Amino acid sequence: MLDIAFTAGPDEPIIGAAPGVVAFPVSKPEGSASAAVVATSLPDDLRAEAEAFLAQVAHSGKAGEVHILHRPLQETSKVLFVGIGEGDEAGWRSAGAAVTRSSVKETSVTIEITSAREPAAAVRGFAEGAWLAEYKFRLVEPGPDDGPKLTGLRLHAPGVDQRAIDTARIVATHTRFARDLTNMPSGVKTPEWFVDQVTERGGRIEIKVWDPAELAADGFNGILAVGSGSSRGPRLLRLDYAPEGATRHVVLVGKGITFDTGGIDIKPADAMALMRKDMGGGAAVVGATLAAAELELPVRVTALVALAENLVSGTSWRQGDVIKHYGGLTTEVRSTDAEGRVVLGDALAYAVETYDPDYLIDLATLTGASRVALGKRIAALFSEDDALVKALSEAAKAAGESVWQLPLPGDYRAAVVSEIADLYNSTEVSAAGTITAALYLREFTGEQHDRWAHIDMSSPSWADSANGELAKGATGWGVRTLVRWFESL
Ligand code: BES
Ligand code: ZN
Ligand code: ZN
């Protein structure tokens, strides 16, 4: 990982102190005609040069916009001007990502963060943006465009505590772990492999795993049904971070389909191509739990990941089957491609029976319909608790992720009621796919429906191209939002 640290001290001059490149934050105040440097350390002789340069390149000051001033034969031969937008954490996050992606290689960049309105938030944002943008998934080295890399970032931010950088590092590390899990090809990524990866990094967290025989003994028949077509058996994974003196308890549930062919309701090739990502919700709840533990947050976090591979074979589950879930609810299978809700049903029922948490939150790449509703960058959020909706929405916004609430209309519930069992796992094509999936899950939350939230993050879990702090591929969506929310509890 990129080396990010504070400069030696408040008196250390930024320019000329160390070999390397200097960066200055730039912003365009409202109403003003041109963007200007917002730093106190800009020497007078450079100030006039910078002003002329910013005008010449028409720097907009927008977050993440970078222009490099070349100064041949001068001691500081390259000066980078990076936009910070409004100068809030999001602006600094984009700036951190942009500096990392800029063409400054084999060197260290020093930047001043002293004039930020909230310096600690700015430092956290900048470092997080840099570490997330640095990420790249490759199974062999080197890549076609793996040239020399930026070696380090030095942040000149007198008075800001080391904790700001440490928090960014922990959140970025676990977001990157969630991305790694999600990007890994499914030939490698079996339910057992997922469990092993987490167990290796579990540290002080208590971990419990159910193998297929244990799932059968305990009645997790939804997870077993979905995994029945694969020779690589399903698992249920439970993490428990229970710090002494915790006053809140959160239970997280994640969808962990390591590959989704659609089962006998097989997906067309194009729709199946990226279905290794169908465990992104499980990866996010794991990442958030590990991060909470490393940050030593005073919140108990229990995470459950329902892991199965949804394949087509002579032993696959089939349409018309009736599954008796953990806890007793039954599902009539209408589509073997609506498998996520079937494994989540078991895990939610287990959570409700076992714990009495303050909050019960599930994350899942549940429906393609969520992209139709909200597009590529926004996750769908469901909850009956308005305060929880507000808190999760604010956490997402602060974290640089985005959610939007969709309703849980009682009169749509009929769409998931079966004639011969309790529930159908899918509905008529004319039904609202994302909402009816949420209503199905709600049935498993029993008396805890009022403290439950469901997040369908099918779309934002994957980026089609690199953009800001997002690398192409898995985004690790949810780790950042959940950690922010824990911090607010
Ligand atoms: N894993 C998919 C949802 C998905 C689609 C995630 C695209 C990410 C990108 C899920 O298991 C699924 O197939 N859902 C069906 C539900 C339908 C059969 C009721 C869907 O969305 O079409
Ligand atoms: Zn599916
Ligand atoms: Zn799926």
UniProtKB/TrEMBL annotation:
UniProt KW keywords: Aminopeptidase, Hydrolase, Protease
Cellular component GO terms held in the UniProt record: cytoplasm
Entry-linked SUPFAM superfamilies: Macro domain-like, Zn-dependent exopeptidases
Domain Cytosol aminopeptidase: 335-342
One annotated GO molecular function: manganese ion binding
A GO biological process held by the record: proteolysis
InterPro entries per record: Leucine_aapep/pepB (IPR011356), Macro_dom-like (IPR043472), Peptidase_M17_C (IPR000819), Peptidase_M17_N (IPR008283)
Family annotation (Pfam families): Peptidase_M17, Peptidase_M17_N
Record-linked PANTHER family: CYTOSOL AMINOPEPTIDASE (PTHR11963:SF23), LEUCINE AMINOPEPTIDASE-RELATED (PTHR11963)
Purpose of the protein: Presumably involved in the processing and regular turnover of intracellular proteins. Catalyzes the removal of unsubstituted N-terminal amino acids from various peptides.
UniProt record similarity statement: Belongs to the peptidase M17 family.
Protein name: Probable cytosol aminopeptidase
Species: Allocatelliglobosispora scoriae
Source taxonomy: Bacteria, Bacillati, Actinomycetota, Actinomycetes, Micromonosporales
